Amino acid sequence: MIFRLNRYINVRAVAIAVMMMMTAALHVVAQSPAAGDTCRRNGVSSELSIAAAPSLVLRSNPFLRGHNRMGKPVSASLSGRLQYAMRFAPDSEYGRLYPYAWQGIGLGVTSFSASGVLGSPVALYVLQGSRIASVTQRLAVDYEWNFGASFGWKHSSSTDAADRLLYGVGSSVNAYIGLAFMLSYEATPRLTLRFGPEIAHYSNGNTSLPNPGVNRVGLRLSATYRLHGIRPRSLSTDWSGFRPGMSYDITLWGAWRKWGYSPSVNEPYTGSGALEVPGRWLVGGLSFNPLYRFNPVVAAGAAVDLLYDDGANLSAHFEPSSPFESPRFYRQPLSERIMGGVSLRVEISMPIFSVNIGIGHSVYSPTPRRHDTVYYPSDDDRLSAVKSDLRGFYQMFNLKTRLYHGLYLNTGYRLVDFSKSGNLMLGLGYTWR
Fold first, then answer.
1. pTM value > 0.90
2. Rounded distance between C-alpha atoms, residue 5 and residue 208, angstroms
3. How far apart are CA 62 and CA 59, in angstroms?
4. pLDDT digits (tens, 9 = 90+) for 153-169
5. Which of 78, 187, 388, 412 could be a cystine partner for 365, CB 3.0 to 4.6 Å?
6. pLDDT tens figures, 105-115
7. Three-state SS for 334?
8. Quick one: residue 168, left, alpha or beta (phi over 0 = left, psi -120 to 50 = alpha)?
9. Contact (Cβ atoms closer than 8 angstroms) between residue 86 and residue 46
10. How buried is residue 379: exposed, middle or buried, by Cβ count under 10 Å (0-12/13-18/19+)?
């Protein structure tokens, strides 16, 4: 029987990772030059926001279309939130490089239609936003992203797979990612009103099954009140001390995930209609990412990515004499658990946080070969081989929280073939130039 991680490890550790990220961010804020003797303390401003977001839920799977324990589709949601953010002093280093940026923490609650199907999860998250363009002296276009954990989802703890599918989500804690583009109007020196489109995604990163993912698209309406440190309406960006050039990132990350298997078809695991493999599986990786930094905000480059997944390609090694409900597998060769790939990366840097997005494709991912060629008789030897679970396109979203000098905390999420859930990416990295 192949090695499995302890089945009692669950997605609550995702929340722990998010809390670590938030603690690290607050520590960096406290140690920032904006709070030191090199600038005026009254130049630092803080603000409080309240927001509401009526949204449509994208019914992208049978559960959301009504195949759930209540037999009702989930079509809409309403979110409310409270946020605290701060802006660095204009004469600090961060204030000169990113004069319109704000960062902070938020608390929100979301209620879905067909009450009782998904529950009313509460999200705790970090946030960051800035100006995209100024329209007039008082009117501007801004963006803001949110990243954190959401708690309180309705789910089933039953060991029966069919029962769990009727609950749609496999865990009470899910990761939360949100992005909004807003038209901002400065009504008074202290009050700013914003509204604009917002998208949000919830997922547990395959740390539990089922993991259909919940997506909503809506409109955010918010009001922000500056508590102290009123800032001038017009600020200038000072990049005079910046020199374009190369930087180099190396990131080591790890997590765990659930896997499914397809015992009776010559296909890899597709994530739909497959049986669940008991236990949770170790997944980890190493990435080396050179980036050319065009300015303090934008960088781009390519990366070499290595991936190890202890549960990959199990379908090819299912022991047909074992029951589907308690499957056994031959141990995969090490080569079938490893993927090497190359990805293109774009990074957006702001104070404390950097968002690194990548699209890649496998370069090394051997084709797994079934052990049970007698069980699947064929004169064509190609039918004893299946496409690797690790072969193909992959996409990454990484949030880098700077800790000390070049050291950063990496919190990320990996997709496969633009549509299938992959795994979380929790780790540490280092940047040098």
1. no
2. 13
3. 8
4. 988 766 666 666 667 78
5. 388
6. 999 999 998 87
7. helix
8. left
9. yes
10. exposed
